[in-house]
Amino acid sequence: MIRHRQFVRAVLFAACAATVAIAGNALVQHSIHSAQIASDAGVRFRESSLLYVGTVARLAEQYLVQPARYPLELIALARSASVVEGSLGVTISGFGSAPGREIDTVWASSEAEFLTSTGALRYQPGRTRVQDELSARIPELVLEMNRAGNEAMADLTPQIDTVTQSILDLLIRTPAAEQAELAEADEVFRVLYQRGSDRLAVVARSWAGTEPDRIDPRQPPAEILVFHPVATMDRNGESWYTGMVRFRRSTEPLVVNLSHRKVQLTETIVRSTLWTVAMIWGVAVAAAVLAHLLKKEVP
Question: Going edge to edge, which strands form the sheet with 105-109?
């Protein structure tokens, strides 16, 4: 009888110990996975923001060389931000139209700072300066980007200049016999131009980023500023840099998504833990009952 009780106690003690161990492991796993979820969510939020602003920057290339000619197109680009969850607006800036060539003036914006309550503009395109957390970095960024652009275009620029001169020479002489040669030179120019545009896009992308640079999903700022420079083949003076696209985004979608995923994680771990504990106690109770029925055979 005593041995039977000792056996039952041993079984129940083992079940209790296993339960404590499983619960402790569940807490550890929850902590590890929560941290991983938070890190992944922060990275994805930042990357999706950079992807969007990069797309806008590529589209803005064709307009920022002569922004005064494309006000409606630039405004449409700025307003496209409304489709992005948490968007607080886009501002597209570039060289100013006033004497002095200010390098960071607003050409289009959908940010509340630059709009009235009725949606009217509170800025003068090409004249109103942007003043935000990125402004102080713009002059140095322009210098560094142009330096990188010169390196990226070192071999292409002479080729483009040569082809351009050939096209000009052919245009001066316009016999029908030279039309084929002109078409060939034009095609070479297009290929080189596209290659150069792609290289400058890579340069511009390397200077894209966010303010703050890193997002702690556990204590995120209320909003982030995502920025992406624009560099074009049609050089503005001696500058490959043509302008900047800023995208201001609320972190509320990140917080909501993170909270939802943590709830799902908790539910999954709780269900798994309860199922495992139930199995252990089921086996323990079954062993105790079986031992009671067969107690004479228990050593």
Answer: 105-109, 87-94, 239-250, 223-236, 209-211
- Rounded distance between C-alpha atoms, residue 290 and residue 269, angstroms: 31
Residue 153 DSSP one-character state? T
Cis check for the bond before 212: say yes or no (omega within 30 of 0): yes
* Crossing angle of the two packed helices 179-206 and 138-152, in degrees rounded to 10: 140
Domain ranges of the chain: 2-37+257-297, 38-256
208 close to 229: Cβ distance less than 8 angstroms: yes
Burial of 104 (0-12, 13-18, 19+ CB in 10 A): buried
Q: Which residue has the tokens 């109770």?
A: 285
State pLDDT tens for residues 155-210.
Answer: 988 888 888 888 777 777 666 556 777 778 888 888 998 999 999 999 999 999 99
Segment 237-270, tens digit of pLDDT:
578 999 999 999 999 888 887 777 776 767 676 7
CA distance 231 to 242: 5
Is residue 180 within 8 Å of residue 211, measured between CB atoms?
no
Alpha-carbon gap, residue 213 to 292, rounded angstroms: 66
CA–CA gap between residue 17 and residue 49 (Å, rounded): 48
Under DSSP, the state recorded for 3 is: H
At residue 174, φ and ψ (nearest 5 deg) are -120, 35
- Whether residue 1 is predicted with pLDDT greater than 60 in this model: the reply is no
